[in-house]
Amino acid sequence: MEKRKDLSSGVPELDRVLEGIWAGDNIVLQTDRLDDFLPFAQRYCAYTQEAGRKLIYFRFANHPSLLPEGVPAEVHELDPRGGFEQFIAQILTIIDRNGHDSVYYLFDCLSGLATDWYSDRMLGNFFRLTCPYLYDYDTVALFVLLRDVPTPLASRVIHDTAQVVLDVFRNDDRLYVLPLKVFDRHSSTMYMLHSWDEDGVNPVTQSTVLSEILSATPQPWIDPSADLPGPWTRTFMRAQSVQARIAAGEDPGEDVRALTDRLIRMLLSRDENEDLFRLCSEYFELEDLIAIGKRMVGTGLVGGKSVGMLLARKILARNAPEIARRLEIHDSFYVGSDVFYSYLVLNDCWWERHHLRGAEHFYEQAEHLREKLNTGSFPASTIAQFREILEYFGQSPVIVRSSSLLEDAYGNSFSGKYESVFCANQGDPEQRLANFMEAVRTIYASTMSVEALSYRRHRGLLHRDEQMALLVQRVSGEFQGDLYFPHIGGVGYSFNPYVWSKKIDPADGMLRLVFGLGTRAVDRHDDDYTRVVALNAPMLRPDGSSDEVRKYSQHIVNVIDLEENAHVSRHFEDVARVSDLPIDMFASRDTEMETRAREAGIKDVFSSVLTFKKLLTATPFAEVMRDMMQTVAQAYQHPVDIEFTVNFLDEQDYRINLLQCRPFHFAERLIHVQSPGRIPVKDILLQTNGPLIGQSLATEVDRIVYVVPERYGALPTRDRHEVARLIGKITNHPDRLQTTVLVGPGRWGTSMPELGIPVTLSQIKNVTMLCEIARMHEGLTPDLSLGTHFFNDLVDLGIGYMGVSPERPGSILNTELIEQCPNRLGQMLPEFADRSDLINVIDAADLGGRWIFLWADMLKQQGAIYLSDVCAVGQDTD
């Protein structure tokens, strides 16, 4: 028989969130204080009186009565000290006597029962027997637990058995409710944190508020080994005891510094000779490390990405507290590197990985291993911990980020080499868990990707122990209808490598800003643009007129679509029209467009352009970001790059979420190089007035690989990937030369072959300079790609960038001279001789005594590649 679904908890607004109270529901509330449970108990009891329902109250704890005065109820006073059997027998007898007909039950706080029976296990047994019994009688029962008083041994049983489990928090005198479990019911907002006040029970939509409330609540250890402690758990238990003595002003009883360094070795870094260990030892206190341990799944190191984020926040807290107060509180979790090792062993992948280094068919075997990692299984204990993470976040979107041991370290950024996966985190708990585990598998499998392995091989890291930890973060942002996104996402550099104007001071750094998710800033999107900001001159732009500003502004926004349960792209206009956001903080009106629209009789024209003008002129944002990065860079004694989001609480108050920080592998100085003087035009192969990025250089060139724009532009899209692979064969050929310049149409490294040449890092890693020619189709311009993973790859490998727009004044592309040079392609790769009309491989050795020179001055934003009868290169100048 179908159960009644028209009952109530006494709080109608909460009933709507839970999709109703059903006959048979056992409702468990977890609170920090019993006082926070009383408003629920009072409304629950009052409802029974109003609805004429029988209320039975089991009174057995030593706290004040939960029954409001004047509410009729059948009260049974019990003594749990008589033992488990007698106690539960009395309760079951009373339940039998009252039978069906939707009787309501109220229980005293269950937490004390574990003390009375000297066992959390027996508390779990009590609930496992009582809850189904009540369910079968179609009753409604209300229970309360004090958070963290029962161990996971009891609380997990209670969570598994109850129909409804709610976490209750108090923050600034306001109550919040987070549903952890609602049996057989689901809605798009059910598992979100809700506030309960005079306005009703409403979902909290801003990540800044969510993280502040939940992080203020003491967190239990999510490591289930606490009941069977090993060396890892015993060390943390010891650290907690020492920290408790310190907090009480007592003698800690042991060397705190030694214990702190031991935890650093366990969690953050094991090489005491590294700069990273020095920084961790300087900035992390014992209590910080205990807090990290509490939020870990499994054991092992938390990895480079996690360490970078945590360390940057600690540096700011100590050295720039006024900036630290602007940071959005993070409430991340960490999956230890040992979990990855266990995954390898459990899924029979460890031996294959072990033998991979010496494999004859290295990449083929790596691909087979990647496929196995994509379909592996997890131990039950790990799955249980994943559940706890997802219960904590509710239905807030999360991102699972790679955080390997070598990632984001001094000397190796691994930028974009490993996956990070957004989880929209919608659906019922089982669906959300399945999606989360799939994200973890995807990241584990990415350790065997061609790009990651090529990067490690090129950097001489294949012999290094590379383990994959994970960083699980709440996606920073706000719910806007069916969409979720931050107001601003971006990347920043404490040192600006692109000086397109003499007004720019490279030492002040730069930002790459987008509206919405920051994936638009860190991934290369060739169908759109971002806002590049020089922090000493924020309003300076490479483009000029309003038409150019509109053309080179962001048009596509990355968001999480809650209905599609996916990370998607939307047009800015579509997002802006449905969002309740201060759009004028990010966008400016195009008055020229509005005028033209009026003259043409067009109404309701959308003229907003993402310029971020008000953000950069009416708030201290640019100054704050500059000071933030400089503070961290000074501690690192090295330039840094960061990823961040920004969310506005009102017009002037905003929070910055510092998501990532790592050393930026770029010399903290740009220099001039001596000009070659006046070069005869007839000897210039190409010349540009910018953009240029990288270190200034004047050098002899051994080889130019030139892709003929007209030929490439005529190829069908499917053939362009073949061209990219051929370029890889040329640049990785056994007779490759020391200084190679790659020149081609459109954008190198694009994911859209119609806009350029889709080479991968492994195909260009031996190149000295990349030249993009804006001559593939009308309107295509060289793309700076500042802040993207592609840009970081170029910096990592010391590859310079040069954009050439032949139609611009001062720019030259001398195709006639290039075509006159001998083409070595047929000698290098005879099987591709028929491609000699498409790719010209020009070696200086074939030019009959002439030299090829590259001159690129990053401060002047001028560069040229030219032929000379004299071997002379420019000298560095200050």
3D architecture notes:
By secondary structure, the chain is an alpha+beta fold. Helices cover 35% and strands 22% of the residues. The chain contains 31 helices and 40 strands. The protein has a nine-stranded mixed sheet with strand order 3-2-4-5-1-6-7-8-9. A six-stranded mixed sheet has the order 28-35-34-31-30-37. Strand 6 and strand 7 form a beta hairpin. The longest helix is centred in the middle third of the chain and has 18 residues, at 429-446. The chain is elongated and about 105 Å long. The termini are far apart. The model is unreliable at 777-782 and 874-878 (pLDDT under 50).
Task: Give a short summary of the structure.
With 878 residues, this protein is of the alpha+beta class. It has 31 helices and 40 strands.
List keywords for this structure.
six-stranded mixed beta sheet; 878 residues; elongated; alpha+beta; disordered C terminus; nine-stranded mixed beta sheet
Write the layout of secondary structure elements.
Layout: H1 12-17, E1 26-31, H2 38-51, E2 55-59, E3 74-77, H3 84-98, E4 104-107, H4 111-116, H5 120-136, E5 140-146, H6 152-161, E6 164-171, E7 174-182, E8 194-197, E9 200-203, H7 207-215, H8 231-247, H9 256-267, H10 275-283, H11 286-294, E10 296-297, H12 304-319, H13 321-324, E11 333-335, H14 337-346, H15 350-355, H16 362-373, H17 380-393, E12 398-404, E13 420-423, H18 429-446, H19 450-458, E14 468-474, E15 478-480, E16 483-485, E17 488-493, E18 510-515, H20 519-522, E19 531-534, H21 546-551, E20 556-561, E21 566-571, H22 572-578, E22 587-589, H23 591-599, E23 608-610, H24 613-618, H25 621-636, E24 640-648, E25 654-663, E26 672-673, E27 684-688, E28 692-693, E29 697-701, E30 703-707, H26 709-713, H27 717-731, E31 740-745, E32 747-748, E33 756-757, H28 761-764, E34 769-773, H29 789-797, E35 800-804, E36 812-813, H30 815-820, H31 825-828, E37 839-843, E38 851-857, E39 862-868, E40 876-877
Parallel strand pairs: 1-5, 1-6, 2-3, 2-4, 4-5, 10-11, 30-31, 31-34, 32-33, 34-35
Antiparallel strand pairs: 6-7, 7-8, 8-9, 11-14, 12-13, 12-14, 15-16, 16-20, 17-18, 17-24, 18-19, 20-21, 22-23, 24-25, 26-40, 27-36, 27-39, 28-35, 29-38, 30-37, 38-39
Helix pairs in contact: 3-5, 5-6, 8-9, 8-11, 9-11, 12-25, 16-18, 17-18
